[in-house]
């Protein structure tokens, strides 16, 4: 979901100021290839098929005997994602003899986990979609450093950038099991064909395509505005492309204020979409009442009568299309990269880091397992999943669409930009009804009030970053 929290998210070292043009180009090419592959794919377009090219998962890491042990693993995932992750946990149970219970956290992961810790009953392992939360928990001593065995497995399978995202003040805490490409526009092939439009490469083209779709009788863009994290992803893609990676890094760390002219420019650009009610399904009020899953299903539920022309979000949109609609990825639903906005096409990533909340053999064994190609392969075979694990054989992905996304992610090495809101303290970037989520929802209501949005964003950021 956000990578779920998607998706997406230590930033001190991976949010480097090195140019990311090579990475951006690589990912853009890969996602363009994604569409091409989907158009003529003969190996299936969706997820959930369990038909990956590699038939058997090899046991590359030795896990301890944990018979009689019970452990809880908490994550934000629901629905199809929870079901697929359940297969990963079931394999762990099979190999160790432990009994594993999945615990849903709800969107406010930090609040849920914090309350459990303070109540003396934390889960053994939690999947944290926000770097800022991992760092806050580490400062409080709530998360446990990785064991030598887990660190060894992590070092073998992940680039330094992904290792750094899970570290804080020189200690390694997190394992990024699941990642996301949060710079994708998914579209209805019927809506596009009927309107006579194609994939947009620039923001100007995107707005023109949306208007043409509206003129053809199809509501153009489905926005899940009831989930504030969706709106942060819209802003981040525009900001990264328009302001560039160095400004993006500075704003992510609150080294520049949200009243900066670059933020004004990005919000003004976003307002070109949000400010035209005919371009949004149900207008701004309709978008505010639409949760992310519905933004997908109302677009693709009936491929013969699309409820919208386009929906923006990460590769995990595929889970909702496959599980909750009649559309087929590659036939009825296709995808193209987020358009460039006065600069390079943006590539924003997200991810979920597994951390141990109990200093136990079972918790560390789970982290070692999640750091291995073995655990990644279980979900990869089922589809709608991308792993930053560089030693996962790409043949485990069930189709060429997902292999291209994974190849681009792993090929990016250390040079990538992580979801900005997920780098922030949770009070600003990850709490329902507060901070950035609330300010951008208010902006969706009144896109003309750019100054008011900037003021609200800066006030919330200044308080949260203290």
UniProtKB/TrEMBL annotation:
Keyword Ribosomal protein: no
Keywords recorded for this protein, A-Z: Signal, Transport
Cleaved signal peptide residues: 1-38
Ranges that cross the membrane: none
InterPro entries referenced in this protein's UniProt entry, alphabetically: Bact_solute-bd_prot1
UniProt family annotation: Belongs to the bacterial solute-binding protein 1 family.
Name of this protein: Extracellular solute-binding protein
């Amino acid at each position: 979901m956000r990578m779920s929290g998607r998706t997406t998210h230590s930033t001190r070292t991976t949010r480097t100021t090195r140019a990311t043009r090579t990475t951006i180009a690589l990912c853009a090419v890969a996602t363009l290839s994604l569409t091409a592959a989907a158009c003529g794919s003969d190996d299936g377009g969706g997820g959930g098929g369990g038909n990956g090219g590699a038939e058997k998962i090899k046991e590359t890491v030795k896990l301890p005997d944990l018979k009689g042990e019970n452990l809880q693993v908490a994550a934000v995932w629901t629905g199809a994602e929870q079901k697929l992750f359940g297969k990963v946990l079931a394999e762990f149970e099979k190999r160790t003899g432990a009994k594993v219970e999945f615990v849903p956290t709800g969107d406010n992961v930090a609040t849920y986990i914090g309350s459990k810790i303070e109540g003396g009953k934390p889960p053994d392992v939690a999947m944290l979609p926000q770097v800022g939360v991992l760092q806050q928990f580490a400062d409080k001593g709530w998360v446990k450093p990785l064991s030598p065995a887990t660190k060894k497995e992590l070092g073998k399978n992940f680039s330094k950038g992904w290792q750094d995202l899970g570290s804080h003040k020189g200690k390694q805490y997190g394992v990024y099991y699941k990642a996301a490409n949060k710079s994708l526009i998914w579209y209805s092939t019927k809506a596009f064909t009927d309107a006579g439009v194609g994939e947009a490469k620039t923001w100007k083209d995107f707005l023109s395509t949306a208007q043409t779709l509206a003129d053809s009788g199809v509501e153009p863009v489905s926005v899940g505005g009831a989930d504030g994290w969706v709106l942060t992803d819209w802003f981040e893609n525009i900001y990264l492309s328009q302001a560039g990676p160095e400004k993006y890094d500075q704003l992510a760390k609150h080294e520049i204020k949200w009243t900066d002219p670059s933020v004004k420019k990005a919000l003004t650009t976003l307002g070109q979409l949000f400010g035209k009610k005919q371009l949004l399904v149900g207008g701004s009020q309709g978008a505010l009442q639409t949760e992310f899953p519905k933004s997908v299903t109302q677009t693709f539920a009936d491929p013969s009568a699309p409820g919208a022309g386009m929906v923006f979000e990460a590769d995990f949109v595929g889970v909702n299309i496959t599980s909750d609609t009649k559309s087929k990825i590659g036939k009825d639903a296709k995808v193209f990269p987020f358009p460039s906005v006065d600069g390079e096409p943006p590539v924003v990533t997200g991810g979920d880091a597994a951390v141990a909340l109990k200093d136990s053999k079972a918790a560390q064994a789970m982290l070692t397992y999640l750091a291995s190609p073995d655990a990644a392969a279980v979900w990869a075979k089922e589809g709608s999943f991308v792993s930053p694990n560089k030693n996962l054989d790409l043949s485990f992905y069930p189709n060429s669409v997902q292999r291209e996304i994974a190849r681009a992610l792993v090929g990016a090495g250390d040079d990538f930009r992580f979801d900005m809101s997920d780098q922030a303290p949770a009070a600003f970037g990850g709490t329902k009804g507060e901070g950035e989520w609330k300010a951008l929802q208010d902006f969706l209501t009144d896109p003309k009030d750019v100054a008011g949005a900037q003021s609200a964003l800066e006030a919330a950021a200044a308080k949260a970053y203290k």
